[in-house]
Amino acid sequence: MAKADLLDYEKALELYEPVLGFEVHVELNTKTKMFCGCANEFGSGANTNTCPTCLGLPGGMPQVNEKAIESSIRLGLALGCDIAESSRFARKNYFYPDLAKNFQTSQYDEPIAHDGSLTIELENGREITVEIERAHMEEDAGKLTHVGGATGRIQGADYSLVDFNRGGVPLVEIVTKIIEGAEADAPEVGRTYVRAIRDIVKALGVSNARMEEGNVRCDANVSLRRRGTTELGTRTETKNVNSLRSIERAVRYEIQRQAAILEAGGTIVQETRHWHEDTGTTSAGRPKSDADDYRYFPEPDLVPVAPSREWVEELRGTLPEQPAARRKRLTAEWGFTALEFQDVANADLLDEVEATIAAGATPAAARKWWTGEIARLANAQNVPAGTLVSPQHVAELAGLVDAGTLTDRLARQVLEGVIAGEGRPQEVVDARGLAVVSDDGALIAAIDEALAAQPDVLAKIRDGKVQAAGAVIGAVMKAMRGQADAARVRELVLERAGSAE
Ligand SMILES: [Zn+2]
Q1: C or N: which end of the chain has fewer Cβ atoms within 10 Å?
Q2: How far away, in angstroms, is 33 Cα from ligand 1 center?
Q3: From ligand 1's centre to the CA of 100, what distance in Å?
Q4: Displacement of CA 128 from its chain's centroid (Å)
Q5: Is the predicted pLDDT of residue 239 greater than 90, yes or no?
Q6: pLDDT value at position 438?
């Protein structure tokens, strides 16, 4: 649906209540796959990390990855879930070319974790508790690449390639109960919830948590309920949205799209939908009924997973500080305003800023560098800011500014040098000769020369028109190639103009 045909967002909210639900897939960072010894590795040569078991060849025999169980339990605990005394794997039968086994080993009626909750805080301070229905273990499918079309999608492609390296990679799927009452905040609820999950799995260390590599992917369920009625509307499921901003946009788009259809007297089709980042729209995928028959049955080759209570409690003891609690603690420690903190958090720079402060920078300086110049350079290169420069180097850079060795302008040049691999900040200062000229002798020589060249300015300053000094200061800064402290130059200019009487 073209953007122009959508119903106005406020109008949609006035007529309908959005009801949400999210399924988040988290790819675990175990060394090996879920049921075999193949490497769980991103970026290997196509189909090199495969074996008879993950390819579903005759004679393959799965074995559960203990580390994956451990990670799933820890994740379940962090989400406040109960850990099942006994849980089972099941075969989910369907045919698709990226699924060599023709069934996905998943969990069905006996998930490892169930009945948790996660409280998220929106930017306006509103808190929403999202109920978690279940978190279950399963394996990922392979990856299809469609070649020859304009869009990279299957439509219009000449042929498709399949890479089974991802087939059998351990996943945890976290399923929420329906979320009501989000109202106009619905898109932000989606973004904030998925960010909270991502922050948790990152803090737990159970996933690389890189959304751009698909480590955390979200299926967003959206339906609309007409005001004044109690019946749930028909939902759509927008699949595999893999950036926080896209989740927010996709939820918003679906609310406006569905409202437009309903207002025109149409009906919503229960289906999966694809999200298109470029156009900011969704398009129809496949119809999806609640009664899709996957012919689930217990996986006969795997025994039930029955973690001992002692082990579960032991794992509970390994849980790190909850990201939400950490945010509260850091806000207090750093003394930022809510807005300043949000700036850092939204840019995903909490770790970097914390490490920079630990390396000796003030909170204000750490925030300024990461959310300012470094974020700008990272954006320009389209890479995460944390990959450009280390917190230690940022702290060193901030220290050089504090010590008066560098002005902000010079520091930005030094930063570029550090990013270009020219060494630590001090090394770049030395190699490029970028330090502030703090030698008054050199400054005075340049000032006297500038004053002599502009006798009219000199006369004005002596007349008490101090603002005229700007022209001389400018000339001196230029002569110093910007490597002078402008405040000190001004002081000296006034002093020299006075002493020349
Ligand atoms: Zn394998």
Answers
A1: C
A2: 7
A3: 11
A4: 20
A5: yes
A6: 73
Given a cut of 90, whether residue 175 has pLDDT beyond it is: yes
Cα dihedral sign, 372-373-374-375: positive
* Amino acid letter, 3: K
Mean pLDDT of 219-243: 95
For residue 118, report the distance from its CA to the centre of ligand 1, in Å: 34
Q: How far is the CA of 145 from the centre of ligand 1 (A)?
A: 20
Residue 159: pLDDT band by 50, 70, 90 thresholds?
very high
CA of 269 from ligand 1 middle (Å) equals 38
| pTM score, whole prediction | 0.77
Q: Would the CA dihedral through 385, 389, 390, 395 be positive or negative?
A: negative
Measured in angstroms, how far is the CA atom of residue 41 from the centroid of ligand 1?
12
> pLDDT digit string (tens) for 328-361?
899 889 999 888 888 898 788 999 999 999 999 9
Report CA-CA distances (Å) from 94 to 91, 102, 105, 141, 150.
9, 6, 11, 12, 28
pLDDT at position 500, please?
45
Distance 51 CA to ligand 1 centre (A): 4
- H or E stretch at 255: helix 244-263
| Residue that wins the pLDDT comparison between 130 and 439 | 130
Tell how far the Cα of 240 is from the centroid of ligand 1, in angstroms: 24
47 Cα to the center of ligand 1, angstroms: 10
What pairs with residue 91 in β-bridges? Answer: 105, 297
Can you tell me the distance from the alpha carbon of 189 to that of 277, in angstroms, rounded to the nearest whole number? 19
Is the dihedral angle over the CA atoms 208, 209, 211, 216 positive or is it negative? Answer: positive
Angstrom CA distances, 121 to 25, 141, 181, 356, 472, stand at 22, 33, 14, 26, 53
Q: pLDDT: is 242 or 307 the higher one?
A: 307
